[in-house]
Amino acid sequence: MKPAAFEHHAAGSVEEAVSLLAELADEDVKVLAGGQSLVPLLALRLASVGHLVDVNGVAELTSISNGDGLRFGAVVRHRQVERSPEVAAANPLLAAAVRRIGHTAIRNRGTIGGTVAHADPAAEIPAVLALLDGSVEVRGVDGTRSIAAAELFDGYFTTTLEPEELLTSVHVPALPAGTGWSVQQFSRRSGDYGIVTVLATLARDGDGRISAARVAYAGVDAVPLRSSVAETALVGQTASPELWTAVGHDAAAVLEPSSDLNGSAEYRRHLAATLTARALQQASERAGGRA
Amino acid sequence: MSERTVQVTVNGVPHEASVEARRTLTDFIREDLRLTGTHVGCEHGVCGACTVLLDGEAVRACLLLAVQVDGREIRTIEGLATGEQLHPLQEALRDCHSFQCGFCTPGFVMTAVALLEEGATPNEEELREELSGNLCRCTGYQSIVAGVAEAVQRVNGSGGTAGSSVGSDAQRVEEISR
Amino acid sequence: MRMVGAKVRRVEDRRILTGNGHYVDDLQLPRMVHAAFLRSPIAHGRITHLDVADALALPGVHAVYTGADMQELCKPIRSPLAQGAVPEVFPLVTDTVRFVGDLVAMVVADSRYLAEDAVGMIDVEYDQLPVVIDYETALDPSVPPLFADLESNVIHTATKEAGDVDAAFAEADRVIEVEFSQHRIANVPIETRGLVADYDRGSGELTVHAATQSPQGLRLQLAQTLDQPMDRLRVLTQDVGGAFGLKGNIFREDFCVPIASRQLGRPVKWIEDRNEHLMASGHAREERITAQVAVTEAGDILGLKAALDMDAGAYPGLPFSAVAFTGVISLLMPGPYKIKGYRCDSRVVATNKATYVAYRGPWAMETWTRERLIDMVATELGLDPAEVRRRNLFEGAPEDRLITGPTLAGITTRECLDKALERIDYAGFRKEQEAARAEGRYLGIGMAAFIENAPGPKEMRPGGGFTGGETAKVRLEMDGRLTVITAQSPHGQGHETTLAQLAADEMGVPFDSVRVVHGDTRLTPFNIIGTGGSRAATWGSGATMVATRKLREKVLAIAAGQLEIDPADLQIVDGVVSPKGVPGKDIPLARLAGQMTLMPQTAPPGTDPNLMAEERFTGEETTGSGWSGGVHACIVEVDLGTGGVRINRWVVVEDCGRIINPAIVDGQIRGGVAQGIGQVLYERIPYDAEGTFMAGTFMDYLLPTSAEIPAIEIVHIEAPDDDGVGFRGVGEGGMIVAPATLTNAISDALAPFGAKVTEQYLPPSEVLRLAGVVPAGA
User: Fold this and answer.
1) Nearest in space to C638 (alpha carbons), one of C442, C357, C476, C453
2) Which CATH number applies to B3-79?
3) Do residue A91 and residue A145 come from a single domain?
């Protein structure tokens, strides 16, 4: 199980990386970030590349900034996010989601930009972007553009980035004050991708009614999904276990997951309903605590 | 295929070698540097047998290319003991009969070394979670968990979970509806 | 200090904890080249075109071999132990591929990277043939056999009958019939298979370094197929990274690599990668049993009829094929229970899948079937499963016999059951379960019993059984240290420790002065199995003990002659011979051995100065029932929201006779239980209807991790020290009984839903299907 031959280019800057991508566009070029998904594909010869543009050494892509939400350079490691007091304070949901990625050794190398660009439909961070209407910034030879999460994911392992564009940063909007949140994931083993992952945020008004709610899924479709069914059904309602169960059921009913070795579509729907109810319950408790 | 020169410090010893771009760090360590204590169990980043420390952090060597460690510092299982004197972790694992066939061992040892060096004092559930990125087929894990817990106690003391990086992960357990 | 029975730290651990073990992949020899294989992507097809020219032209490639080459370079593979219908097979396919992963060609190149590049350049085309994937197709006489030289895809049938089965069924109040199915899984040691073959053109000697459980078995088979003289054929094995039965087998790659080395005159290495391993190394346990059990309303089990089908995959296993294990299944199925009549019909079929291999307790289907049946009987009759067991268990009385023959005198299953239920607080749990159900939480308890003839009572193994016992050699070195040469070939079991404990006690030398040597066919006695089948505790230990005793006698005779006293008045303590109770007449073993080796002519008359002993242990010195066994019990909670199963407790009560090293015994049990849990909850080798293999990575084939396996509580029922060989095998028991224990617990948790657990694989989706939460077809 050895990769086929390729050339490796260690980019020293975004500019260099972008010009390499443009220059090698016709020769099967791919960006190498943490490599935790790409290298196995190369080793199994399920993917082959002519050139890797390695962005691990690009210093300008390694910082976290906090202003209008959190902004992560593309090669910020998961572990860096997980350990950041700033992230824990500003966006505990993101901190919780990132801890669900693989194992420590994987998070020590895996990057925020890498997981978003890889666009695994079961991955946590893309679902966080979908949930919070995050975005990414990408750079090509012609300049920079921003892509909203809703426009970014384009199918299984596919994004709307152009081949010669480099994802440079990931923007995760802040959780509004008083918002409760939850990350619910079911995987067969510790550290596996969730069969289904549900993310939820919930806020209540002074009367205790739900004033805002967001629900997003990973693992139920080719791309991370927001549940308009759930969100619509929640707003204006009063929190109750019955509501969570009903919303979970209704939201799951419209999902169209596929079947695989880990479970059928029907099983995934059931799991989505369960985890949605649990996520809403927990988000509601946390909203209560913060109000 | 073009080759590249890599300069790397392994267990405190500087090395320089010319490698193909596609050469994995595992093959580089084992075959080029002839440090065969690091094992290859799956070559796709799941089993953890090839875990080494890269600038102090546990990483899967099979998911890194040798060219990526140019200028970096690596530690492998061969670097732990001082002469005949075992590292306290190795002592604890030996005392607890932690392993059987020894093949997964380097990965567990290096994962646990990183944990110890962070000053972690995980409880059993947290420790099982931390070690879950390394597969063992012989032991059923109980002896490994016991051995690492013993080492934690000997090295970091049994100060509970407060203040440790693993302890601060406590809410992670709560998130897991397994 | 007595070493046997103590939790002695393992000899092996210093080297494995410091990265100084020697596994086959660690070997780098001068001029060594690397092999990679082209494997079939389809389950069944005829090769219509095979062109290796491009691969051969790649710089750095030394050779490319195909099946046609193999027909020139070796003989058809013949097992010395072949059973059932055996086709003519060569190491590489000659015209037809028979499973996904079948061997089409081998490339040898300067590096594994290059070898894989070249494999990708081989041009091959296939004509697809209809596949045989399920039992029904395999059993269909109108379907052509996978091998033209076989008459059928049914390669073996047998019937075992005992007692009066018709009478037992006629007497019954009820007959309960169940179809049980056990899924295909794999052993999956963390070290894959691999070998380095090194042919020396000067001496004509072929040295093979292999990750094997049986160096002598491999050597014997290589001699046959490669026509290599055995005086010029040596197999070496150092550390092996787990095997669990897999590496007791010999595979077709094991012939290809030495053949290439012989042709090229240089060392050739092949290390199986994980994808090859999962796809083609060998798979285990795919079996089904239709069982009928005849019972009374009171819960007496009268009779059992079983029809077993076993899926052997495409190629016959070497040296033992699937056929060998049907006999054990049918022998042991009634277990420690009294019944009056029994019949087991067995069939073994060939399919377009990877070859069947033995996996830790390869006959475990018998325990799963029986223990699941007992729970189903209890449910059907409205009885407590513990009571049904108690009612039917043998006491271990002198007259108790397995209905299939062997005596069960001395078995302790009943005691194990009582202790297990007490330890897990069975009565208390039932109350907790009821309260939990009222809250919508589903807890379950499962229990299961097993017995294993490791080694079995003496009457089952006259003359030492089918291997004729086992031989060990022991040598007193000139410095007074002891070298034990064992026929065992350990791969994690810690025999360098346990056999040293035994030899140290027998000889009277410090534990640290014993070295256990294994894995070199030039030195080690022949043993076709090597380490496997839970044999080491009895046979490896017994051989070490009798050989050491023989050597001790020689030493005492010499010392007695020198001191002119009766050998019976001598003792050896800490490596020093001395007359009991007489100080000042010490003879250190180093002095004695040095003298006898350098000046054998000074040996007292009638003594033998050759301080080496080689003895065959045939089992006469064994004590105890001969049966290993025990009862496991576990408690689970099933989450109906996710289908997840959480194991809250796992209690083991086991009897393996005397214990040499408690830490090692506990490790064997826990490791076995973990594999059994993996088998039920996580692991499955999936093929689709076209025979496509679907679990080629560790992302698809799920091994349990430290977060899934619970703490396992162990209680030993240990026999007293009686100076005999009272140690029994413990390697397989955990794995044999764990699936029954766990599936019984899950079934119990799902009892309110009327769930019938008849398929052993219970992933979350299946758990929810059984609970009626998710529809079938899931």
Assistant:
1) C442
2) 3.10.20.30
3) yes
Which CATH number belongs to the domain containing residue A25 in this structure?
3.30.43.10
For residue C305, the cross-strand partners are: C292, C343
Full domain range(s) for residue A124:
64-172
Question: Are residues A1 and C695, on separate chains, in Cβ contact within 8 Å?
Answer: no
The values of phi and psi at residue C483, to 5°, are -110, 125
List of domains in chain C: 15-129+188-281 (3.90.1170.50), 287-458+623-770 (3.30.365.10), 462-617 (3.30.365.10)
Interface test with A, best of B20, B55, B65 (most A CBs within 10 A): B65
Which DSSP string corresponds to chain A?
--PPP-EEEE-SSHHHHHHHHHHTTTS-EEEESS-TTHHHHHHTTSS--SEEEE-TT-GGGS-EEEESEEEEETT-BHHHHHH-HHHHHH-HHHHHHHHTSS-HHHHTT-BHHHHHHHT-TT-HHHHHHHHHT-EEEEEETTEEEEEEHHHHEEETTEES--TT-EEEEEEEPPPPTT-EEEEEEE-SSTTSPPSEEEEEEEEE-TTSBEEEEEEEEESSSSS-EE-HHHHHHHTTPBP-HHHHHHHHHHHHHT--PPPBTTB-HHHHHHHHHHHHHHHHHHHHHHHHHH-
A212 with A151, same domain: the answer is: no
Residue A251: inside a domain: yes
Question: Please, are residues C524 and C216 in contact by the beta-carbon 8 Å criterion?
Answer: yes
Q: Is C342 helix (H, G, I), strand (E, B) or coil?
A: strand
- Interface check for A89 against chain B (CB to CB < 8 A): the answer is no
Encode chain A (291 residues) as per-residue pLDDT tens digits. Answer: 999 999 999 999 999 999 999 999 999 999 999 999 999 999 999 998 999 999 999 999 999 999 999 999 999 999 999 999 999 999 999 999 999 999 999 999 999 999 999 999 999 999 999 999 999 999 999 999 999 999 999 999 999 999 999 999 999 999 988 999 999 999 999 999 999 999 999 999 988 899 999 999 999 999 999 999 999 999 999 999 999 999 999 999 999 999 998 889 999 999 999 999 999 999 999 997 433
The model's pLDDT over C274-283, given as tens digits with 9 standing for 90+, comes to 999 999 999 9
Chain C partners (3+ C-beta pairs within 8 A)? A, B
Count CB neighbours of B154 within 10 A. Answer: 15
CA C765 to chain centre: 30
CA distance A176 to A203: 9
Based on the structure, what is the number of domains in chain A?
A: 3
A34 plus A121 within the same structural domain? no
Residues of B in contact with A104 (CB under 8 A): 58, 111, 114, 130, 133
Mutation target for B interface from A7, A32, A39: give the one with most B CBs within 10 A.
A39
Residues A237 and A211 both lie in one domain: yes
Final residue of a structural domain among A142, A172, A202: A172
Fold (CATH) for B88-175: DNA polymerase; domain 1 (1.10.150)
Please list every residue in chain A whose beta carbon sits closer than 8 Å to the beta carbon of residue B60: 36, 105-106, 109
Mark whether A264 and A217 lie in a shared domain. yes
Instruction: Say whether the ipTM exceeds 0.95.
Output: yes
Q: Which residues, in sequence order, are bridge partners of residue C287? A: C182, C310
Each domain of chain B, given as residue ranges in start order, spans: 3-79, 88-175
Is there a single domain that holds both residue A196 and residue A269?
yes
Structural domain includes residue A1: no
Q: What angle do CA C732, C734, C740 make, to 5 degrees?
A: 115
**Residue A163 shares a structural domain with residue A82:** yes
In Å, what is the CA distance from B150 to each residue of B95, B127, B146?
Answer: 9, 11, 6
Residue A97 located in a structural domain: yes
